[in-house]
């Protein structure tokens, strides 16, 4: 049976939490590199290389090369990403290789827990791999608990009211929530209060713009309009909302323009988006018809012209654009 300290399976769908779990494993492996696992100081852990590759792209020769013992017995870490979407051949190769990795190799496998390779997790667990299960954040309460843990990690005490306000302001994206907390703590020297949150979002109202845009391109007409009215009530600058809406529609257009399902890693540069955003917007783009994308592009162009050209009623111009985009997405 495999040494569980050398093969790890990180299971979950929350991208940020999966990345953190993988990073913790990598740091631990590097901390014990070259000292027989004793964690002694003075090792060369920082020099241990990390190779990342999509599990579905692995073939036998490549996997053999990645996991073969080195002539100089150097240690290294191999991270196999998106294993849930791998085909049968790569899955079989990975499971077999994970049963007995060479000395000095730490193997980390990222898996959503579902997908066509769902049974892979059980096979790896049976072989003795360490299973790291990442929690799924689904409710507002889950996000509030996550926010509290982020503040605790920074040794900052905050009220439940502040946490609820922050979660409501940021929305569902854990990356944005974690970034907002880190920024708040840095900007206030750790003295985070309700006034600080209000000041922060007065100066970062574009977050609300992206929330509106996300709902619009997902076809959520009522939710998008409700978010728009809330943002207008708060005084969010019209131009930020218009820019966020245009960015979302153009992201859909770029993905649809590929004519195929993009690879979130290989196509990120061509699309001009981070890999996580490629994945997110690919799911959204599936609902869009080509002719509707063209109509949405016209709508956001008109809204930008109206808002930046000082239209008589920019609120109405934005409402028209949001309604049209959300309807076309439906």
Instruction: Estimate percent helicity.
Output: 55-70%
Q: CATH homologous superfamily of the largest domain, by name?
A: P-loop containing nucleotide triphosphate hydrolases
**What class would the helix/strand composition place it in?**
alpha/beta
| Count of β-strands | 5
User: Numbering strands along the chain, what is their spatial order in the largest sheet?
Assistant: 2-3-4-1-5
Alpha-carbon Rg, integer: 23 Å
The proportion of residues in beta strands is 5-15%
Mean residue pLDDT: 85
N-to-C CA distance: 51 Å
Alpha plus pi helix count: 15
Order of helices and strands: EHEHEHEHEHHHHHHHHHHH
Write the layout of secondary structure elements.
Elements: E1 7-11, H1 15-31, E2 50-54, H2 60-67, E3 76-81, H3 88-98, E4 105-111, H4 119-126, E5 130-133, H5 140-153, H6 160-170, H7 174-188, H8 194-203, H9 206-217, H10 221-234, H11 238-258, H12 268-271, H13 275-285, H14 290-308, H15 314-329
Parallel strand pairs: 1-4, 1-5, 2-3, 3-4
